[in-house]
Structures are given as structure tokens and as C-alpha cells.
Amino acid sequence: MHEIDLKKFNVRSDLVVDLFNLDDDIDGVKVKKTTIKNTNVIDVELERDVLELGKRKGKYITISFNDVTDTTNYQNVITALSIELKEMLEYLKIDDSKKCLVIGLGNKDSTPDSLGPKVVDSILVTKYLFDLSEVEVEKGYRNVSSFIPGVTGVTGLESADVIRGIVKETKPDFLIVIDALLSSSIERINKTIQLTNTGISPGAGVMQNRKEVTEELLGIPVISLGVPTVIDLITIVKDTIKFMMKQFSYNKETINKSSRKLAPVTSINYLNHEEKLTNEEKEKLLGMVGNLDDDELKALIFEVLTPIGFNMIVTPKEVDFQIEKLSSLIGSGINSALHKNKRINN
Amino acid sequence: MHEIDLKKFNVRSDLVVDLFNLDDDIDGVKVKKTTIKNTNVIDVELERDVLELGKRKGKYITISFNDVTDTTNYQNVITALSIELKEMLEYLKIDDSKKCLVIGLGNKDSTPDSLGPKVVDSILVTKYLFDLSEVEVEKGYRNVSSFIPGVTGVTGLESADVIRGIVKETKPDFLIVIDALLSSSIERINKTIQLTNTGISPGAGVMQNRKEVTEELLGIPVISLGVPTVIDLITIVKDTIKFMMKQFSYNKETINKSSRKLAPVTSINYLNHEEKLTNEEKEKLLGMVGNLDDDELKALIFEVLTPIGFNMIVTPKEVDFQIEKLSSLIGSGINSALHKNKRINN
Amino acid sequence: MHEIDLKKFNVRSDLVVDLFNLDDDIDGVKVKKTTIKNTNVIDVELERDVLELGKRKGKYITISFNDVTDTTNYQNVITALSIELKEMLEYLKIDDSKKCLVIGLGNKDSTPDSLGPKVVDSILVTKYLFDLSEVEVEKGYRNVSSFIPGVTGVTGLESADVIRGIVKETKPDFLIVIDALLSSSIERINKTIQLTNTGISPGAGVMQNRKEVTEELLGIPVISLGVPTVIDLITIVKDTIKFMMKQFSYNKETINKSSRKLAPVTSINYLNHEEKLTNEEKEKLLGMVGNLDDDELKALIFEVLTPIGFNMIVTPKEVDFQIEKLSSLIGSGINSALHKNKRINN
Amino acid sequence: MHEIDLKKFNVRSDLVVDLFNLDDDIDGVKVKKTTIKNTNVIDVELERDVLELGKRKGKYITISFNDVTDTTNYQNVITALSIELKEMLEYLKIDDSKKCLVIGLGNKDSTPDSLGPKVVDSILVTKYLFDLSEVEVEKGYRNVSSFIPGVTGVTGLESADVIRGIVKETKPDFLIVIDALLSSSIERINKTIQLTNTGISPGAGVMQNRKEVTEELLGIPVISLGVPTVIDLITIVKDTIKFMMKQFSYNKETINKSSRKLAPVTSINYLNHEEKLTNEEKEKLLGMVGNLDDDELKALIFEVLTPIGFNMIVTPKEVDFQIEKLSSLIGSGINSALHKNKRINN
Hints:
The structure is a homotetramer of 346-residue chains.
Chain A: E1 29-36, E2 39-46, E3 58-64, H1 71-91, E4 100-104, H2 115-121, H3 127-131, E5 144-147, H4 152-155, H5 159-170, E6 174-183, E7 192-196, H6 215-218, E8 222-232, H7 233-256, H8 279-290, H9 294-305, E9 312-316, H10 319-338
Parallel strand pairs in A: 4-5, 4-6, 6-8
Antiparallel strand pairs in A: 1-2, 2-3, 3-7, 7-8, 8-9
Helix pairs in contact in A: 1-10, 2-10, 7-8, 7-9
């Protein structure tokens, strides 16, 4: 096994909550957990660039929820999103007179990547009314415009360049940028919204190495709103192998408890179990692979899958329906945060 | 009738061939007619701004054809378009090293206005390959990118501003801008392509008063490619009333010719007949309305229709099918004109 | 003028309220007018086939409203539609145990004809849950399925055949069929919903001579829900010419009233004015054309436009936005009428 | 490990070539391999139901190719498909007078599952012309209609029921049914077309347990055309684990060959290497998991992933672009096989 080059494989997640243990007390990191209408909200503030996580100084709000195809849940998440987005506006000292440009990144023709364009379709746009000298726009509405830059593979253009050009010409005061993200955790897919003011890398969900869209690049605040809609194959294979050990550990433990003797051995509840295998047990189960740490295991899987030459993504089967619901939910949340006159549930 | 305000109603057509009699010998106007594979091409060069027509100095190439749902016809029009577009590039001294940005104006969600976005979907884009330092792009391909700005009613942004921003940031050498146009002539709908280097007014087909996209605004040549896909209601009502007189005149004439005595009086062929009614005959047929000139008649119809408060457009019933064919045809024509390696029929 | 063949041109409207004066007391015709949340509802019951109108025995409910892009209005029309649809179900003695198949006629790729398919996209479908033997569906939900047959020009199949085949195999108890209609009245476009149990002719909005979808054909009740989204060109030209006379009459009258002497002569309010021109005045204004009745005028326009060879339709410019709103509104109305558990506003 | 229930996990592939070694000489199985324009074609004829593979008696034609985004390749595959489809028609004794109904299964809103609906969009439909008594259809065209049944999750209806209903009412002589398939082999994704006359199970690609569409159900020949566009997560995790062993074996072998001593140890070419590890080596590398056979390993992965409660599919990142090309390719192939007058490349 030593002949395999276990070069550091970069952990890859767009979600700050995936990157470190929120219960740790880290210098310069403030964590606040709340619940809004049964929806969990974690507000992480990095008071400095945290290089070891590859994350910039700024605010990261993570809203976690269950199935948005449930009507009650759907309404609750709109409320939570609207409240948190208003909090982000306050944090950035953006008042109601400030003009917003809403940008939907991603590829409208690829279902899991179509979140951004679909959200933009439901944004209440008013800029052209403000631009008409003869019209006085009703109070309670903000000056809002929107835009869908498309993806580099289709347009040949860098989204960051397109956005910078449009920002310079149309002069909004701040941006809201929506994109589908890549998750490093299968449980978060289509069940998390991350708001941050630290910028976004277009195509992060399905492409790499794009120029980032940040306040630094554009000169105005950038609020990005991301939902993990896909997970990469390497992560999911790694997770599955780790889950084998967790399940083995769980089964070993439960089978020894007399009270469970007659119960079926394999349980669907092993996920919350903390794996407690010894190195020997791991090796018995999974050989040398069993004792690789996360990064080593990902490096191995990366190497094994590379010659397949396939750049694969993993999505839930019902992704089209989930994206439909999420887009409409996020559109409503943004509209109600941006315009005083848009009550929630409209 | 005198109490009706016959203020000059502006003739409105995006097509130069609709605006004057091409057989007239006008100072500063050069007209060349050719035929390419059964397709008629009229090349009009205005050597000066022709204010009386509201048209700028420059080249206007009009390609006229029949039903593009016929396969042979379809291929012939691709050939004619490719040849004329290459001629336009030569006229503008644009060689193969020049980078092109192709822009599709219009609203993808409104069938007759979706031509621009649909054409862009079939453009062969290469810019991101040229941008990769490690890739050498095969000879015979030009650096091409593309963009769909959307419509002001949806984005809140002026298309001209969006385009200017993107041009400044991504630095193409010239633009090709595709849009659906408004026709002032029912026979031209979906049967004409106009190429010009004099700029284009976004939303001309279905909206008014947008900022124009011109070389003056952008600092680089702008080739616009337009197809009339709609006609406004005022024009079509005016045409119908004028056609009543033409048909009346035709019927009067044919009924008096002994050789036609037994033929059916009403003919479907009256359209090519030149109306020769006297003022008295016009008045007998259509009263005061019969003796209004085109502008007066349009002013009257405008006034009558205004309180309806409806902004109506007229399209052929099968417009979706025609737009589909036209988009793919125009995409092929542009690709083969831009890239040496794209043979026609690919 | 006598040489023009004034053959009877058939009045063509899918709306029963366009066809006769509702204030007339006609044998076998019961008319009931109500208002629900500012929305006008006219309930016409034909107790016999009314051959002179080409309309079958049955119930015709016409809901008339203004701009559905207004939020309050939008909600009010959902309420009115839901109430009237429930009334129709009661009239047809269809209880909550009856299985419904919702069918969206029309062409999803042609904006004004896409209403049916778009409504179906928002229908709450439950049949597959009822079909699962191991699932017990929550009370308050009806067994509902849905279907989009497409249009004959695309599939080659008669929609009525497709529907009959599916009805025979899947055995619903009744149908709701949604389609875009042709209006004979410009003011009704996208501002009227007609519910009837007398069947529907697929493609009525944009094509002719299709086989009808009726209870007679299928053996189960058919509730059709139609919205006029287009108007044919002949009707709109005829209307414009008639409006010229109305406006002339209005102007003549107002100019003679001393109190209005200083007011601008041309008013946008002439539409509600009743035209009172004498035959001489009509002839002065519009010659022989001025004294044609509606049918004669339509016949003349038909004849004049025929050689153009174009089959044109007229729609509002913003038809895409209106269809979007109407589809979602009608979907909500149907869902709340079909399922007890779907409160309005969900 | 023994406490894990290694119940037989069913191998699941819609492709007959995935299921057995084509070089084996199996009773009742005839295999013919050919190459058409650089495209590999394997024609498998099962002369009896082969229960052990779960495959019915009949013809299975497998066309394998590389990247269809290459133009030459694209044209070659159209030719191969057209030839093989004509061969299938001959095998089934279907002559040019026979009426065809082309059906596109799958969900147009889910990119990898949209192949069927997208192919149908490019089918040349003629039935409505044959149905017009006054039109004589040009020779060289077959009577063809088409249909998109939608998916059960959206319509609530079984596709097989919908199809049976339409077949009974519209009476085609045979069906061509297109669907996206599930692959059990990552290398085949979007690179294989399977033609068979043995029927198809709607939703096989992304859903289970649907009623099959077969000649038995419908009484007319059913030619199904499938392309594997997705792979299930269990298979891909299993493959990755097996590939670990293959790569380990490859590396071990190459490192011992003196001629390769200086070459980099890890090669992208290990895929064609035959794994030759001993049980001890497997155990060293992957513990007990290393010595599970394919079915046992899949059973384990299935069990581990079940509590995640996610039904995941794996697709290439660029699946939208590949599906676009494949749909148009398959549409052209079918059109040229069905209509004598449709030359290839039209």
C-alpha cells in the first residue's frame, strides 16, 4: 500500500458547517445556534480569515431543514430565510434605500445546477419602474434587478467577468448571488441553505477553478446564498466505506447487549452511533483501507476513479421536484426580505 | 372627421426594404440585387444617414425566402446567410483573428420573441478553449463567445447597459446581435433576414424606447441580424383597409374585361394588382377613411385602439414551429460564417 | 359593393356570454349573476340544445375579472373559481369519492396555447398513492391523476382519441379539461374563465375541426375550463372599424354639449358610449363599409385577408407573464375544489 | 462479518451485454459482432427465455460508441443506428406500409431521464397527413405518430396503461419506445444504445416496479431503444472498491517488471489489467470486504446506504450536453430508418 501516493487530497465543501466541529472553542470564531419555526439556524462569524479551513473572514448563516415538499415545513423555511437574510442586511448596514442586483448562477438546463436561474425567475424586479422618471414607485418596494449569467461551458465567458461588467454599468449597491453548491455530506443535500458575505465561486457545484465573485472584485457587498444539491462521487464512496465501519461497530455493540438479543441485528439507526472500532477490528473488516484517515481515503478513491475519465455527480432521484420547491421557497424568502411590502406567504 | 387629431403617426419598421421604393434612384443609396440558390438578396448601402427614413449610414442586407420548413429551402437559406454574413465581415474588414461575441436579444418565454435566445443556443462557442493557456485550439476556429441578456421587463436592466458592461470586461472585437423584429408588412413575417452594421434597438419587436446597441455605444463593430416575427395590430388593420380598396379596384377592372366575364369575380390574385380607384370611388367604398393616406389612417387606428388599453401583437398560428426552424438555420449560418472549419450542412 | 359575395360568415366564439344578450328572456335559458370577492360570475343554464348559438344543453359558468398580476385580485379569482368549480361538481352530483383526471390541452411550446399544459404542472396528483395497496391516503384528498395529450400537429394523434384511450384504461369517474380558447371579444382576453359541462373542442383556440371531447364520447362527465387567450385577426379588424364609428359618434355628441366645449374632443372613454350614427353619417365616415352589419363586415375582411395566406392570431404583448399567473391561479383553484384538505392560498 | 445478512442482492442492469460473457458458448444464445463506420455492434439473439439472466427470448442489438459530441462520430452512430433499426424491422417482418407510434418514456424535467421526450421532439410525424382524406402523402414516407406519456410521479398514471389506451384507440402496427436506462457499468453511460424487441420497463432508469410495455401487453411488436444515462450509487461504490484491488494488482505487477522500474508506479492504464490478487492479498488490502463477491458486496453497500434514506443516482457532470446530442442523433437515426425519403444527414 505504501507505493500509492497518498498526497493530501483537498477536502472540498462549500459549507462552513461541514469544515469544523462547531462545539470547539476556536479563537476568532463566534457560533450562535437558534431555532426559528422548527428550523435550525447556525450563525458562524469568522473574525479573521481562517486559512486552515480555506474560509474568509465574515458571516456564515446555515439554515438546516427537512423535506421542503411538506407544506408547513416549506412555509417555516421561508420565514427563517427571510429573517436571516434581513439580519445579514443589517450586519452589512444595508438599508432599504440600497439597490439590489440578484444573480442566479448555474446551468438552467442541468437539473441540480438550475437552482440559481430558477430562483431568479421568481424574484420581484422593480428597477425599470424606478428608472421611469414619470413613475413614482409605491413605498415599501426596494430597487431590485436580476440577472442570469449562464455557465462558461455554454457562453465561453467567465461569470465573474460578466457580473463585474454588469455591476459597473448598472451600479447596484449590493448583490445577492444564488448558486447550487457541492456538499461534502450526503445528509445536507437539498436540506441546507448557507448565506454568507464572503463571496462565491461560480460553478462550485459542478465545475472547478472559476474566478470568485467577491466584494473585493466588485467593490460592493456580495451576499451569496447556496444550497448543496450535489455531492461528488469521491466523497460519497468515502462516506460509504466509513459507514461500513460505523455500522459494524454499532452491530457489534448492540448484539452484546442482552436486552437487544432478540432484536434484528442490522438497524437503520446506526447513523447516530459513534464508531468505536479498534485498529485491529478496522483492519479485519477493511484491511489497510480501514485505517486510512479521511484525506488518505479520498486520495485513494480519487486515484482509482481518475482513469475512468468520468467526472460524475451524485443527486437524489427526485432532484427535479426538490429544486422546483427550493427555488420557489428561496424566491419568496428573498422577496419578503428585500421588499417591506411583500408579506410572507405571498 | 376634421375634429380628429391627425398628428403624424410614425411609420414603424425595422426593415429598410419596407421603407422606400428600391427602384427609385436616390442620392447616396446604392442597391444591388442578387439571387443565391433561389434566395433573393438585396444589398442596400446608405452612404449617408438618411434622416427621412430614420436610418443610419451603413450596409443593409435583406435575404428573402419562402417557407423554411421545406428542407431544400432551409439549406439554401443557410448558404445564402453564410455567404452574406462573410461579405459583411469583409465589408467591415473583420478577419479570422477577430474575436466575436454573439448576443441573443429577446424573451425566451415568449414564442415570437424567443428567436435571439434560441439562436444563441446553437452557436459554437470556443472562447473558454482559447482562454486555457494549456490548450492550443485547432486551426479554422474563431474565438467566439455568446450571451443572452434577457428582457428589461424581467431583469429590470437595459440590455444595452448589460451588453456594454460585458463588452468592456470580456473585450470581443465585434458583436453579432440577433433579435426578433417588428414588421410593417405581413408578407415578410418569418420570411426575411436583415443584416446590418448600423445597430439594433433591443425589444424593437415587442417593446419600445429601449437604448440602442450600436458601434457608437460600444466602440466595436455591431452586426445585427433581425427577422420580422410579429406585426403590430395598427399596421395590420391599416393594411386590411387598404387591401379592401385594392381588391375593389381589381374586381372592378376584371369584371369589365370581356375575356374574364365568366370567371369568378373575386380572385385570390388581387394582391399584385395596383389600386387605381378615383377619390370618388374610394369615398363611395370607405367614406372619409378611404381618402386618408397611410400615416393618417394609422393615426386614426392608433387613436381608436388606445382606450382598449391593450398592446397587441399579431403572429402566425404556427409561429413556434417557424421560430424553431429559423433559429437552427440562423445558428448554422453564423457558425459556418465564423469558423472556417464548419462546413455548411453540419 | 354588391359584387362582393357577402356569404354568411360564421360567428366564432368559444364563450357563451359572447353569443347572446344575457338580459334577453329566452325560453330554456336561465341566467344568474353574482359577485364573489369583487369577481363577476354569470351562471347560464341552457335547458335545451340552443342550435341557433351552436351551444349544447348544460351549464356555462363565466368568471370575469381584471388583471391577475395584481395580488389581491389573483387571490379573489382563486376563491371564485374554487367555489364555482365546487358548484359544478354538485350540479353534476360528483361527490368526494369520485376519481378525477385533469387534462391540459394545447401546445406547451406556443405561449398563448400553453395554458392547459401549464395548469396541469401545478395539479396535486394522488392516484399513484391510492394505487399503492400498502399506503392509506390521508382523508381529505381525492384520487386525482393528470395528463397532457399534446397537439395533433406534433403527435399526429387526435387529442380526443388519446383521451378516450386513457379514460378507458385508467377509469376515472370524471374529467376536468383545461384549454386556451379563441375569443370574439378583445376585452375578454386573459380576463375570463368559462366552466362548462358541455364538452370542449381541442385546439379551438388555434386550430379548427378537431374531434370534440364530451361526455357523449367518453361516457363520464367532462368539465371543461377555458380561458380566451387569443383573438382572431378578422374579429379584431372588424372591431376596430366598428370602434371608429363609435368614437366618431361619441366625439360628435360631446362636442355639442356646452359643458364640454373646452374639453379635449377625443376621449379615451368612448368605449361605453352607444353609437348613434345615422346611415348617412356612417356612409360619410366609412362609405359602403360603414353600413355593413357584423357578419357582412367579417365576410368582407375574411375575403380580403384570404390571399395573404396567413393564419394569424392576436395576443397581448405580455401574454407570457399573464399565462404564467393564470396557470398558477387555475391550478390552485382546481386543487382547492378537488381536495378538502387543500385550503385556499396554499 | 458473518452477522451481516448477505442476502442475494439482485444484479440490476437493463443491458443484456452487461449480464454475461459474450464469448461463452451458451445454448440458445447467438452472438454476432460487427463494426459499422467505426461503431461496434453486438447482435445477441436469445432463442429461448434465459431465466437465469432475467431476459426474454428475442433480439438484443447493442451499439457501442465513444463521445457523440465529436461530429464524425455523431454521424457514424446515426448511420449504424439507422442500419440496425432497419435490420430489426426486417427481423420482425415489418414492411413500409406498417404504421409506427414512437413513444418517449421518462421525465422531461430531469436531465438524465429526459432522453425519451427529447427524442420524440425530433421525430418526423406524418399520421395527421395520412388521416386527411383530401391529402395524398408523398411516397417514401411512413405513417408515424408520437407520444410522451410522462412519468407516474407526475401524472399519477402507469405509463403502460396510458400506452395501452392510446394503442387501442389509434391502432398503430408497431411501437418504438425510447427510454433512459440504468447501467451497471460506468463505462457505458451515454455510450451505448440497446435495441430490443423484448419490451421495456418504464422508469427503469430511475424508478422501480413499473408495469412493462411488451408485445404481450399490447398485441403489436414493441421495439425498445434504450441508452444507459445513469448508474446507481450501489453499483458505483462496488465498482470503486473492486477497482482498488485491480489497481493494487496492476501496481504490484508493474513494479516488479525491470523494464518499468523507472516509470511512475500509478498508471491510468490499470483498467484493462486483470486482477490477480490472492485471497490473502485481498484481505490485507480490504479485509473481509476484499473477499466478498460482487453480489455480497452490493448487498453490504445496500444495507449501509439504506438508512441514509436517499435514493441517489450518479451521472456525468456534462449530462445535459450529452443528452442533447444523443436525442438529436437518435431522432435522426429513427427518422431515416422509418422513412425511405429521409436520407441520413438530413
